[in-house]
Amino acid sequence: DNAEQGSVKEKVLRLFSQNGEALELTENRLKAKNASDYVRRLTYLFVYAHEVCGRPSTSVQDIRNVLRVGKVLDKSGNANTWLGKRIGIVDDGEDRVKLNAKGRDDAKVALTAALDPNVPDNWHPDKATAQKRGPKKKA
């Protein structure tokens, strides 16, 4: 059903803008609970956006790039570790991934939440503050 696909694409393009073949994150308020939830939501939404725009799989490098732009590709490697686990996404060859059924369901839930003004936006990268570390222990 093309009408439903069209409305889904319109929703997705409220979070991402198309720049040629590339999709760029334009709305970073994804209504995440914390940083790891944000990484998960952004990954699923990004892969889902490609799917809705007619590209069944997405390169892992493009996902890393959108996570970097989204300010959640961290030096500690949490995002890369999560990506490596392939939760909700499956390999599609050539270092590309696509959503599995659970990932697609999670993407739809995240999309609905991101666009719902009644859902509180508890965490996004611009709101994040570095956590203060305790005093260094003497060796």
Low-confidence stretches: none
Mean pLDDT: 90
Per DSSP E runs of 2 or more residues, the count of β-strands stands at 5
Q: Count of DSSP helices?
A: 5
User: In percent, how much strand structure appears in the residues?
Assistant: 5-15%
Oligomeric state as shown: single chain
The first-to-last residue Cα distance is 65 Å
Instruction: Please state the structural category.
Output: alpha+beta
Q: What is the alpha-carbon Rg in Å?
A: 16 Å
Query: Globular, elongated, flat, extended or rod-shaped: what is the shape?
Result: globular
Encode the helix/strand succession as letters: HEEHEHHEEH
Helix share of residues? 40-55%
The largest sheet has its strands arranged as: 3-5-4
**Major pleated sheet:** 3 strands, antiparallel
Q: Could you walk me through the main structural features you see in this protein, from its secondary elements to its overall organization?
A:
The structure is a single chain. The chain is α+β, with helices and mostly antiparallel strands and 139 residues long. The chain is 45% helix and 12% strand. It is built from 5 helices and 5 strands. It has helices spanning 2-12, 35-52, 60-69, 78-85, 101-115; strands at 16-19, 22-25, 58-59, 89-91, 96-99. It has a 3-stranded antiparallel β-sheet with strand order 3-5-4. Strands 1-2 form a two-stranded antiparallel sheet. Helix 1 crosses helix 2, helix 2 (35-52) packs across helix 4 and helix 2 (35-52) crosses helix 5 (101-115). The protein starts with a helix and ends in a 24-residue tail after the last helix. The model has no long low-confidence stretch (mean pLDDT 90).
